[in-house]
Request: fold
Amino acid sequence: MLPLDLDPALSFCTHLMYGYAGVHPDTYKMVPLNENLDVDRTHANYRAITNFKGKYPALKPMLSVGGDVDTEDPQKYNLLLESPQARTAFVNSAVLLAEQHGFEGIDLAWQFPKIKPKKIRSTWGSIWHGIKKTFATTPVDEKETEHREGFTALVREMKQALSLKPNMQLSVTILPNVNASIYIDVPAIINHVDFVNLETFDYSTPQRNPKEADYTAPIYTPQNRNELLNANAAVNYFTQAGAPTYKIIVGIATFGRTWALDSDSEIAGVPPVHANGPGEAGPYTKTEGLLSYPEVCAKLINPNHQKGMRPHLRKVTDPSKRFGTYAFRVPDDNGEGGLWVSYEDPDTAGQKAAFVKSRGLGGVSIVDLAMDDFRGLCTSDKYPILRAAKYRL
Reply:
C-alpha cells in the first residue's frame, strides 16, 4: 500500500493515524521506526500523509507511537514511565517530531505488559485451577502502580506541551490484551485526552492460544468464556470509571487470525476448536496466523478449484450478531490443510458500528486501512470494511 492508495478512504475519516513511531531505548526520545519510509527524502511518508490536509481540510492526521511494533528493548515503555527526565525527553521530542512533519496530534498506543493467555477450561478444570491459584499468583508487572501513575503523569505532561500549539490533539490507544483496569486511571487522564481508542480485538490469537482457535473480537461474551474479553466489557470499564461516552472509540480489525486444524480438531468447526498453531501465511501479508480481509475473501471464493489450490473455506455467520464470523476447512485424510479463521467482514463491521451507535460512543477506528480491501479485489468496492462501518454510523 502506498500513500496514494489511501485517497478513496479519506472522505470517510475524521482522523488518520500514522503508525508507528517508537521510543529510542537510550534517549527515550520519540523517533521514526523506519527512517527510509517515514522521513527520508525519497519516500517521506510522514509528509505524504499530512499533505492530504490540502485535499481533505477537515482531516486530522496524527502520529501514533508504540502499537506493538516497537520491539527493540520492550521494557523501555515501562522504564520511561518511571523517570520524570525520560518523560520530559519523550514529550519534547514527540511534539517536535509531530510539528515538523505537519501532524495535528499524538496518539499514545502504549506498549504495556500483556495479560497472560488462559485456556478455556471445563468446569472440573476450573475448580482445580482455582485450588492451584490460591497457592501461587505472579503479577505480569511488579511495578504496576508506579507505571499507572507514570502514565497518568505522561498524559498530563503531553497534553500540557500540546496545548501550547494550535489545534493539537492527544489520544490514547489501548492495545489488545492490555489490562486497562491496571494501567489506566480513567478519572485522572480523561480530561487530558480528546479520545480513547479501544483495540477490542485479538482477544484470542494463534500466538497466545496456539492449541485453541476461538472468536478473536466478540462484541459480547460467548458462552463459558472470560467475561472481560470482549468489546462491551472494555467499553464498560471506561464508562463506569466516568469517561464521557463521546470520547470512546471502538477499534475494528481489518485482518483475520488463523489457526491450523489437524486430525484431532472437531469437524463441526464450532469454537473453541482444537488447533495446531498458526495457519499458513497469506500471499500479501506473509505472516503465519494472519490474513488481511482480501486474503480471507479470496479463500472464500474459489469455485473452480484451480489446480494446486486447496478447497475454499466454509463461512459461518453469527445470527445473534454478538460474536463474529468465522470460516474453516477441515483437514484432508492425512490431517493436512485444515484452517480456521476468525475475521471481520463488512457485515460484522456494520454490527460493531451499530453497537457503537447504540451505546452513544464517539465512533470507530479501522485498524488498519492497509489490510482492508483497498484495491477492491473482493467486490469492486474499495475499503468495504471502512464503508460498511461508516454507513452504519
Notes: The first strand starts at residue 15 and ends at 23. Residues 3-117+141-254+344-391 form a domain with the TIM Barrel fold (CATH 3.20.20.80). The two ends are 26 Å apart (CA to CA). The mean pLDDT is 93.
